[in-house]
Write a structure and sequence with these properties.
The chain is 39% helix and 24% strand. It is α/β, with parallel strands linked by helices.
Length: 490
Amino acid sequence: MIPVMTAEDIHDATETFARYGVPADRIFSEIMRARYLDYVLFQNPENQQYGVSIEDLYENMKKTSDTLGLYEGDADTYVRAYTLALRVDPMAFAPDMEKGEDDVRALVEEATSRAKEAGTTVLFTGVEHYLPFVSRIFDTLSDKRLAFAVKDKVWKKRLQLVFPRCRLMMADELPEDTVSYDYIFQFGEGGSHSLSHLLKDTGVMDVILPYGELLSPEMEKDRSLWAREGKLSSYEDMALGDEEFAFLRFGSTTSDSISFGTASFGNGQYESTRALELPQDSFREADEWNIDVFIYNGSPALQTMLAGNILDMDYSIGTGFREIGETELPGGTVPVLSASNIRDYGISSDTEPVLTEKGQKGILLQGGDLAIAVSGDEIHMIPVPEGQEFLAGEGVYGLRSQGKYTSWYLKLYLDGPVGRLFLDTMKAGRGYAFTLSRLLRIPMPQAGDGTIRKADGLCRETVHQLAAAQENWRLAKRNSVGLMMGHGKE
């Protein structure tokens, strides 16, 4: 099995390739060549039994020069480059390859484990979303008839050389595919269509879709099909990076019920928190795919408030606030607000300033915005003081008022018992599957100007008192050294 390569491993391998006459920008080509030759040459039973001579290997290398370039070293050195190319993770040297996110890695590992337990034919689509981890899929499922579907013709050619034992297809070829699969991992976007017609009678399928796309009019036929088939067994909301996705699991037979909940991959493995289980017939009759409806009904307290019209799902946080997205920065020095800087009582003073260039992209938080920090199993939020601005760091999000509601009003609501009930529906396992899109859908209590002013004032005053108490406690701890350590016994 190909080992997971660390930055040091990649650096060492790059230097070794260079000694063998393979510069850094040629490594991936040599890996493609080595894997292709290994597959072709050892299709020959005689080579399987007796091996391949150095001369034969070198001559076959020359035959690939039209597509992969000519290796300019001698035969003995090429054998070393060939052997090393077969030992490393190909995707660690692929061009323009970004480091894969941990949550995507964990998702792929969950899908791979499901595929491992399935039959012999396996299909992974949307490969561009998880290219850094394709080698692990191939390694783990080496005993399967594995197929990959991509959207990019260039990557189809590359992956066909790197994994010649796999079947490579373009995504637009899938509707006409004639193979039946035991397991399908469908990672799609942009007009995705159900691939359930490609499943064997005993097959299972996992579908990952951007949440907004699942609810779009373009997906209406797919939603109707899935409801009629009755094989949907689980529907979960999850976050990959800062984006919200729907995670749909389909069984091989009709399911009596469907579970609804939240999935998380932030702790290195798949974790799920179930909110509600509903009979298949009830789900079909409801004709509803809004995940919030099911998750909120999994909480008796939230169910009571919504049923009693105390809160209206159509009057959400998104009615009064909007997400602060990336913009072009004006340039200059600006403090970076990290998740650790955000406290319930204010912003700590140890923010680090950075020099930004004009036109550089970033999320700029300004006075009056609500800064939100998500770290593990904690969510903290605080309005940005007037006259100040910060560049949002990792794990920091921002909301801006669109009218009469203030950030202080929203903080008081979300930090209160009702707001926390809604926030806790985003919990999965030991952390939050947090996305701003889902936060903006949380119902918000309607209020007039007078109520908003009172809530705003109450929150400001209480946070001020909390900050003062925190400072007093800090001073007390500092003074304890002199009080307790600086004097002898009385």
